[in-house]
Design brief:
- The protein is of the alpha+beta class.
- Helices cover about 35% and strands about 25% of the residues.
- The chain has helices spanning about 1-35, 85-100, 110-120; strands spanning about 60-65, 70-80, 130-135, 140-150, 155, 160-165, 185.
- The protein has a 5-stranded antiparallel beta sheet with strand order 1-2-3-4-7. The chain has a two-stranded antiparallel sheet with strand order 5-6.
- A hairpin with a 2-residue loop joins β5 and β6 (about 160-165).
- The chain is elongated, with a radius of gyration of 20 Å.
- The termini are far apart.
Length: about 190
């Protein structure tokens, strides 16, 4: 009986260690999806940080240049519903689809529509992706943005705080088959 008990405890410990190694590997994959450094753009201060609540989850952000000579930067903040491996896999899929879309599309509204279609067709209805996509035109100092289920972004300008609103659907990506996402834009100013 003692030998059986020792074998069961050892087997459970081995399984727990295997799971911990898999979770750490998934955590490293998730962190690898995010930028290693902040974009250095004269006249702008852009920074991001993500600290998962658990070992692995579905939160991420990214800075990706549109292909046209680094004049327009897309900033994304993504939160996949749920936690753990399922959320991490959805985050990996979303990140890859986003990077693919930005190579072919120039407007955040179109990117949001296309990502929604991709996620809707591949995901369980219980899993969705909240995303905020902001296209920063560094030459014109203007942002265009689409909010798909995230908290409304805030603009802090010369001591005043205002909420950036946009019309159209605000459903998270993957919830509704064909929502009508709309972009809004704001002129940025120093301070």
């Amino acid at each position: 009986g003692v030998n059986l008990l020792v074998w069961v405890v050892a087997s459970e410990r081995e399984e727990k260690n295997r799971i911990m190694i898999e979770l750490e590997t998934a955590r490293q994959m998730q962190l690898a999806l995010m930028p290693e450094s902040d974009p250095q753009i004269k006249g702008y201060d852009i920074s991001g940080c993500c600290i998962p609540a658990r070992n692995v989850g579905g939160d991420l952000f990214d800075f990706v240049w549109f292909p046209e000579e680094k004049k327009k930067l897309c900033i994304t903040v993504v939160d996949v519903s749920g936690k753990g491996m399922d959320a991490a896999f959805t985050a990996v899929y979303t990140s890859g689809a986003f990077i693919s879309e930005i190579q072919h599309e120039k407007e955040v509204k179109t990117i949001a529509d296309n990502l929604n279609s991709a996620i809707y067709s591949r995901q369980d209805r219980n899993r969705f992706v909240c995303a905020l996509m902001v296209a920063l035109d560094i030459t014109n100092k203007k942002i265009s943005y689409v909010n798909a289920g995230q908290m409304r972004p805030l603009l802090f300008r010369k001591g005043d705080l205002s909420v950036l609103k946009n019309s159209g659907a605000r459903f998270p990506l993957g919830v509704v088959e064909s929502p009508k996402y709309m972009s809004a834009s704001t002129q940025l100013k120093s301070g």
